[in-house]
Design brief:
Structural class of chain B: alpha/beta
CATH architecture of chain A: 3-Layer(aba) Sandwich
Strand content of chain B: 15-25%
Helix content of chain A: 25-40%
CATH topology of chain A: Pyruvate-ferredoxin Oxidoreductase, domain 3
Order of helices and strands of chain A: EHEEEHEEHHHH
Order of helices and strands of chain B: EHEHEHEHHEHEHEHEHHEEHEEEHEH
Number of strands of chain B: 14
Radius of gyration of chain A: 15 Å
Number of helices of chain B: 13
Oligomer: heterodimer
Strand order of the largest sheet of chain A: 2-3-1-4-5-6
Distance between the termini of chain B: 49 Å
Shape of chain B: globular
Number of domains of chain B: 2
CATH class of the largest domain in chain B: Alpha Beta
Strand content of chain A: 15-25%
CATH architecture of the largest domain in chain B: 3-Layer(aba) Sandwich
Strand order of the largest sheet of chain B: 3-2-4-5-7-6-12
Helix content of chain B: 25-40%
CATH class of chain A: Alpha Beta
Largest sheet of chain A: 6 strands, mixed
Largest interface: A-B, 19 and 24 residues
CATH superfamily of chain A: Pyruvate-ferredoxin oxidoreductase, PFOR, domain III
Largest sheet of chain B: 7 strands, mixed
């Protein structure tokens, strides 16, 4: 598999850094090379957060990319900022809980995911919206094997958080493409 | 070797230091290295070590001076302007020959500068930085894994050479996550063993031996010259002969040879792939040590090479060493970005093509 560059972006608190980390863990467990790079800077509460994940079979030259193959836009400003970086033929995931407009671009594959809505209705836990989005990405984009997520969830969620594993697993398969 | 873990650079550096037997860390906050003191504040005591948040960078390096003089394995860390504040301390560590490992997670400058990645401290870390005739041994890893391995090695090199050793990375390596395998732990030295391995250390003579003295003041010029020429100079010559390291890639038949270190070398590698697809053969010399600089490997450059290009996130600092190494044999160019902006592979490829066209 050649290099896959994924950008996950949204508001702070939407779990965008976690989505990226989960992909990175899964890639590592799957024997891939991987880098995860967050923005760091004078960030403010309620500001934007994003991370770039590179997954490849070969060593990764740079964790910073000028172009991406997968963009997960959790809010409008992220779509505006990173949309132009999505390469033609790439996959675009839109969080329709926040972004109401349709994407006006026919050279990419667009997937609309009502993260919080699905998390509330299907999972019964609105906080698992980021996992709903992650599940959509893993099932539609050839990045990492979704089966790896069991191992990742068990590694990331220990102690009291272990009780949340079933809800998160459910969230990963909750989205159905319209 | 342990299991593969996904770790943030700064946390992996701190963990590596603890596993390498470091038991003293004196920190002061500054972005983008804050996860190092954060990790140490949480984990070092669990390993039986001492974490102190100093009141300033200057205090931090002077605490390191004390702990190292007493024979401890000591780590300090900061980022560019913080390292600048420590410079009189580095000069003092060099003269008392104290083994201290320092991590500099570089950001842009000059002055307080910005907090984004840069390599603008090349002069500061390789040209002394503090006053007087001394050198700090400087490693420049390209990945979190290599940084971890270099940190292990640095503690041994610092002890062997009785000299400060610095790990120079940029904010990108500090902030990113990569899979890393932490090598097997080196047990920390027991207090009663220190005197055996570090007979010079101030461990308390208990009336069983002559007392040791650690001194940084030599007011008699003959004494100071003798110390500089007969203690420091041979040590630095030995370091130059034994420690300089570089990775060379595809030098044979290369039209252009890039010279790049740390995270920038990774971007250069990607640019090299792009240029290869366009029929331009390029090679890379990646210094793993910035001081001593690996001058000798430049003799391996193919005589048919047209250009040597220093690629750096600074305004042309390493290029001085590259020119010394090349010694007039090839034209030396510069490809750089500064101020916290990273080079992209496309930009390097384009600028390289431009260099070849202009000649």
């Amino acid at each position: 598999m050649s290099l896959k560059r994924i950008i996950v972006a949204g508001f702070g608190g939407q779990g965008v850094l976690l989505i990226g980390q989960m992909i990175a863990y899964a890639a590592m467990y799957g024997g891939k090379e991987v880098t995860w790079m967050p923005t760091y800077g004078p960030e403010m509460r309620g500001g934007t957060a994003n991370c770039t994940v590179c997954v490849s079979d070969d060593p990764i030259a740079s964790p910073v990319v000028a172009e991406c193959d997968v963009l997960v836009a959790m809010n409008g400003p992220s779509l505006e900022k990173f949309g132009p970086m999505l390469a033609p033929g790439g996959d675009l995931y839109i969080n329709t809980t926040v972004i109401k407009e349709k994407v006006d671009r026919d050279d990419v594959n667009v997937y609309y995911v009502d993260t919080t809505g699905i998390a509330e209705e299907v999972v019964g836990n609105g906080k698992t919206g980021n996992m709903v989005m992650l599940g959509a990405v893993l099932r539609k984009s050839d990045v990492v094997d979704i089966a790896m997520m069991d191992q990742v969830l068990e590694y990331k969620m220990t102690g009291k958080k272990a009780a949340l594993i079933p809800a998160n697993k459910k969230a990963l398969t909750a989205w159905e493409q319209e | 070797m342990g299991e593969k873990k996904l770790m943030k650079g700064n946390e992996a550096f701190a963990l590596a230091a603890i596993k390498a037997g470091c038991r003293f860390y004196f920190g002061y906050p500054i972005t983008p290295q804050n996860e190092i003191p954060e990790y140490m504040s949480r984990e070092l005591a669990k390993a039986g070590g001492a974490f102190i948040q100093a009141e300033s960078e200057l205090a931090s390096i002077n605490m390191a001076y004390g702990a190292a003089a007493a024979g401890g394995r000591v780590l300090i860390s900061s980022s560019s302007p913080g390292i600048a504040l420590m410079q009189e301390g580095f000069s003092d560590l060099a003269v008392i020959q104290a083994p201290v490992v320092a991590i500099n997670v570089m950001r842009s400058g000059p002055g307080i500068g910005g907090i984004q990645p840069a390599q603008a401290d090349y002069f500061q870390v390789t040209r002394g930085g503090g006053n007087g005739d001394y050198h700090v041994i400087v490693y420049a890893p390209k990945s979190i894994q290599e940084a971890v391995e270099m940190i292990y090695k640095s503690f041994d090199i610092a002890d062997e050479y009785r000299n400060p050793v610095m790990i120079a990375v940029d904010g990108m390596l500090g902030q990113m996550m990569e899979p890393v395998v932490i090598p097997e732990a080196i047990p920390a030295m027991e207090e009663d063993e220190i005197g055996k391995y570090k007979p010079w250390a101030l461990t308390g003579h208990k009336n069983k031996r002559e007392h040791n003295t650690i001194n940084s003041v030599f007011l008699q010029q003959e004494v100071l010259e003798d110390f500089n020429l007969n203690v420091l100079a041979p040590k630095y010559q030995k370091a130059e002969a034994e420690l300089s390291e570089a990775e060379c890639i595809d030098l044979e038949g290369a039209e252009v040879v890039f010279v790049a270190y740390g995270s920038t070398s990774r971007v250069v590698l990607e640019a090299m792939g792009m240029l290869r697809e366009q029929g331009i053969r390029t090679g890379l010399i990646r210094p793993k040590t910035l001081w001593p600089f690996p001058y000798k490997v430049f003799d391996n450059i193919d005589p048919a090479t047209k250009h040597v290009v220093s690629v750096e996130l600074s305004m042309g600092q390493m290029i001085q060493d590259v020119k010394l190494a090349v010694n007039g044999r090839f034209p030396v160019g510069l490809i750089n970005r500064v101020g916290g902006i990273l080079l992209s592979p496309v930009e390097i490829a384009e600028k390289t093509k431009h260099l070849l066209e202009v000649k």
